């Protein structure tokens, strides 16, 4: 498969009460089709957060936005555009990063979490600025991260997010 140069097409989710910022790398094929974050049915992102926060798993985009905002969580991706093959983080090249000040200048972010190693690596390379909270790398909720069970993800993510 040949890499395509793609641009992120949906907005970050946040408001002036957001305290936690969760960053992915770049939307998967399914997320791009659905025009919202973590759209692959096997991605465990929404299940993990729902279990941690003792809520039902949100289904629609509207429910997902309300779910995040009601828990003071902002959500975005590190990359604004890149060359990528399908949904493969390892194929990402020619990165243009999103400007994190879009959120950091408007919301009282206390903690930044990256969803997986690639998001963490890209954040440190392109986005980390003096005076911003250091990101904490969390294990990827992607179905490609089969070594991590849902229970293990919930435990690890929960220990970090509940501290904020």
Key features of this structure:
single chain, 164 residues, alpha/beta, Uracil-DNA Glycosylase, subunit E, three-stranded antiparallel sheet, 21% strand
The largest sheet, given as strand count, sense and whether it forms a barrel, is: 4 strands, parallel
Using DSSP, what is the number of strands?
Answer: 7
The end-to-end span amounts to 41 Å
> Order of strands across the biggest sheet?
3-2-6-7
Please, could you describe this protein's structure?
The protein is of the alpha/beta class. It has a single domain, classed as Uracil-DNA glycosylase-like domain (Uracil-DNA Glycosylase, subunit E, 3-Layer(aba) Sandwich), CATH 3.40.470. The protein is built from six helices and seven strands. Helix 2 crosses helix 6. The mean pLDDT is about 95.
């Amino acid at each position: 498969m040949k890499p395509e140069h793609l641009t992120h097409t949906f907005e970050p989710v946040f408001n002036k009460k957001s305290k936690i910022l969760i960053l992915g790398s770049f939307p998967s094929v399914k997320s791009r089709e659905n025009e919202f974050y973590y759209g692959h049915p096997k991605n465990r992102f929404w299940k993990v957060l729902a279990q941690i926060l003792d809520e039902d798993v949100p289904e629609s985009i509207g429910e997902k936005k309300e779910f995040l905002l009601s828990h003071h969580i902002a959500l975005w991706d590190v990359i604004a555009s890149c060359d990528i093959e399908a949904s493969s983080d390892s194929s990402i090249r020619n990165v243009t990063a999103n400007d994190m000040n879009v959120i950091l200048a408007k919301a009282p972010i206390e903690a930044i979490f990256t969803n997986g190693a690639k998001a963490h690596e890209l954040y440190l390379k392109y986005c980390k600025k003096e005076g911003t909270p250091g990101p904490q790398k969390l294990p990827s909720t992607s179905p490609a991260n089969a070594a991590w069970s849902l229970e293990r993800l919930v435990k690890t993510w929960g220990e970090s997010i509940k501290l904020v």
